[in-house]
Amino acid sequence: MNIHELPMIIFTVVAQMSVGAFWALGAIQLVGRYRKISVLAIDRITDAAMYAVGPLLVAGFFAAFFHLNDPFHAIFTMNHLGSSWLSRELLAGVLFGAFGAAFAVSQWFGWFSRGVREIIAVLTALSGLFLIIAMSGVYYSARTIPAWNNFTVPVFFFASTLLTGPLAVALALLVVWARDPLAKIRKKQSVSFGSDLISLLRSSLQGMTAVATAAGVVIFITYPMYLLILAHGGEVTQHVATGISTSFLMWRLLFLGGAVVIAGVFAFNQAKLATTPNKILIAVIVIAFILAVVSEFMGRSIHYDGLWRAGLNTWQTFSG
Predict the structure, then answer these.
(1) 3-state secondary structure (DSSP) of residue 146
(2) Is there a contact between 61 and 11 (Cβ–Cβ < 8 Å)?
(3) CA 82, CA 184: separation in Å to the nearest integer?
(4) Over the stretch 117-166, which tens digit does the pLDDT of each residue have?
(5) What's the rounded Cα separation, in Å, for the pair 141 and 146?
(6) Nearest to residue 120, comparing CAs of 106, 134, 108?
């Protein structure tokens, strides 16, 4: 595990999970509206997960600050928005956090009209997209680091977003279905899970596991292409390919494979048949989520193992 880059590993994985979770919740809202389910009823099953997205992002940013020599100078990284993907990444993160917080607070207190809150939600989703694009750009644009300067970086980042985010939402939906925590916090009567809401919960769980499975498969397919790109590159990329082709990569792929199989087969089928959040359904979702998150932390560690600059690192390594 690349401990030196742990702050950035945590930040990138957690931030991508936050964005993916918000997108997933938006998709549930759209499906619920299409089925003409009460807006308040849909909110009661999505709000609990939505309130967890913000703290996730804050935790990710907090971890990222430890990567800076002086965290109080973080604001200066936005000085070059026109030319620096790092500046854009910080701006995108701030926008995603700010719009997300505005939406969460206004949703909690019922501020503004429903239409205004939905506009804020759309702006949050778009700033999340901007964040993933900017985050990818930071690494993809590094021409002096050949292992990053290829198409696999944005593929891995977007796939991670669609793997961990939906599984996190699936887990949150099970919590709501089993306990309805917001009703207890707000001291209101729990939402009644009629046939329409149960149907929405089941189809949402199926959708979340299907999207996560597809994203995991994309990661699997991309790894051989990534290794081929490295193997057919120069001395630096070949050195990186040799360095990452270890048992650590094998375990990363085994954990990912376990998450894909459990989510795509067992969790999907259990959600299709469930009438209650039974123990088997909860267990397979929890296991799939844990395996997916662990595998992504390992994958991001492998990503940072590619931090070899053409020129300096080449001379230091091959000159002896």
Answers:
(1) coil
(2) yes
(3) 47
(4) 999 999 999 999 999 999 999 999 998 999 999 999 999 999 999 999 99
(5) 10
(6) 106
The structure tokens listed for 280 are 């088997």
pLDDT the model gives residue 315: 45
Position 263 scores a pLDDT of 96
What does the alpha-carbon distance between residue 221 and residue 223 come to, in Å, rounded to a whole number?
6
Between CA 18 and CA 190, with CA 29 as vertex, the angle to 5 degrees is 95
Q: d(Cα 167, Cα 18) in Å, to the nearest integer?
A: 11
Distance CA 260, CA 217 (A): 7
Neighbours of 98 (CB within 10 A): 14
How far from chain centre, in Å, is Cα 80? 26
Residues contacting 82, CB < 8 A, separation 6+: none
Identity of the amino acid at 47: D
C-alpha distance across the termini of the chain, in Å: 25
pLDDT at 13: 94
Contacts of 121 (CB under 8 A, 6+ apart): 26, 103
Rounded to whole angstroms, the Cα distance separating 149 from 161 reads: 20
For residue 265, give every residue at least 6 positions away whose Cβ sits within 8 Å of its Cβ, in sequence order, or none: none
Q: pLDDT below 70 — which residues of the chain?
A: 1-2, 54, 57, 60-80, 181-192, 311-320
